[in-house]
Amino acid sequence: MTANRQTPAAPNERELRLSRIGRALTFSFGAAVLVAGGVFGGLWVLLDVEEIGATAKLDAKTLFDLVKLSFGVVAGSGALVALVVAYRRQRVDEAGAHREATRLHTERFTQAVEQLGSESPAVRLGGVHALAGLADDAPDNNLRQTCVDVLCAYLQLPFTPDPGNDPTHQEEHHRYLAFRKVRHTILRLIGDHYRRPQGTHRSWQGCDLDLTGVTIDGNMNFIRATFSGGTVDFSGAVFSGGTVSFSGATFSGGRVSFSGATFSGGTVDFIRATFSGGTVGFSGAVFSGGTVDFNRATFSGGTVGFSGAVFSGGVMLFKLAEFSDGAVDFSRAVFSGSMVDFRRVTFSGGKVYLGAEFSGGTLHFYGAIFSGGMVDFRSGMGPVPAGLLTVLGTPVPSTVILASAWRPTLP
Q: Which residues is 340 bridged to in the sheet?
């Protein structure tokens, strides 16, 4: 995954833009001499000695003080030159320190990657922690992103399924559990670092997470994280167990993608999350089990898309959510099973597209409030969602567009 962020220039890169030392010293000394001459001439005028030769001799003490002051200015010029030299030395030292830190980082990185390729689960686990520590200590964002990318790439590697706890496969079963522990440790470390506030120590917020195609059978903790940049990509991932929690998270930018993901178990939790910008996409996702929970979430901006998603099982909850802006899109979604719950949801703004095919499962709107925004059912197919016509009443609010097949059933 290619990062979109621009990393500030490293000290060794900035050093290349410094002018030559001889030129810098010549310029500094010349400027100092000009300043000294200007001060001497200014004092000469100030003391009104332009006509001194015609009227009286210059007082010796005054001339001595004038010369002494001029030499003081020259001494200051020397201090200025010394300051220039010290500044350049500091820049060179910083560049050298950065190169040394990068060299040490590269050596540690190589060792950690070699550990990840070990046949021993314990050694691999050590490599995981070493890479996480390298990401924390990385001298720049590019090196940090590289460490995160390697951890994500490990999760994307194929692995042998659990042979079961049969006595004839006990050794293989224990080996599977040991390597599963390595994968779950990576998930835990990513969640722990990524939910820390951006800019604080050990925070990976703003880094891209490429988790496409991974199998999530453990927990990830994004509780109260802020997504204001970067991309978190679960496209094609399989959620078969555990909990991925975005509870209380704020989506004000960036992108979180579950496109094409399969939810056959486990939970993805957006309880009390705030969507004020950015994008969360479930396009083409398949929900055959598990739970996706948006209870009490607030949609005041941004986009949440379920276009083309298939709901054949599991549960999706929006109970007590508030839609005051932004967009939620269920166009071309297919509900052939599952239970989708919009009970006591408030639609006061924004746009919600529910032009889906309701051929099975249950879709609840009991207690929902339609006081603004646009809720569009015009492409809806199948039976009327439960409770929808009851909460709409007669006449149907102008902000709600019903499918034509549903209108004759109105009281």
A: 316, 363
Q: Which helix (H) or strand (E) holds 101?
A: helix 60-116
What is the biggest distance separating any 2 CA atoms in the chain, rounded to whole angstroms?
120
DSSP three-state, residue 302: strand
Among 200, 168, 163, 197, CA closest to 179: 163
Tokens standing for residue 258? 């579950």
- Cα dist from 311 to 253, 257, 281, 362, 365, whole Å: 27, 17, 15, 10, 17
- Residue 317 has which token pair? 């909850």
Question: Which residues in 246-343 belong to E strands, given as ranges?
Answer: 250-257, 262-269, 274-281, 286-293, 298-305, 310-317, 322-329, 334-341
**Which parts of the chain sit beneath pLDDT 50?**
1-16, 49-50, 52-55, 410-411
- The label of the residue with tokens 């000009």 reads 34
User: What is the per-residue pLDDT across 122-143, written as a single tens digit (0 to 9) for each?
Assistant: 999 999 999 999 999 887 888 8
State the DSSP string of 231-259.
EEE-TT-EEEEEEEE-TT-EEEEEEEE-T
| 38: Cβ contacts below 8 Å, ≥ 6 apart | none
Assigned token pair, 64: 């001595």
Torsion, Cα of 185, 191, 192, 197 (10° steps): 160
Structure tokens belonging to residue 52: 């001194």
How big is the CA angle at 213 (ends 244 and 109), to the nearest 5 degrees?
A: 85
45 to 35, 39, 150: CA distances (angstroms): 15, 10, 72
Q: What angle, rounded to 10 degrees, do the helices at 121-137 and 170-194 form?
A: 10
Backbone angles phi, psi at 311, to 5 degrees: -110, 95
Continuous H helices in 47-59: 52-55
Name the helix (H) or strand (E) containing 353: strand 346-353
Q: What percent of the chain has pLDDT over 90?
A: 39
Query: What distance in Å separates the CA atoms of residue 315 and residue 266, rounded to the nearest whole number?
Result: 11
Token pair for 150:
């390697």
pTM of the model: 0.74
Cβ-count burial 177-197 (b if 16+ within 10 Å, e if not): eeebebbbbbbbbbbebbbee
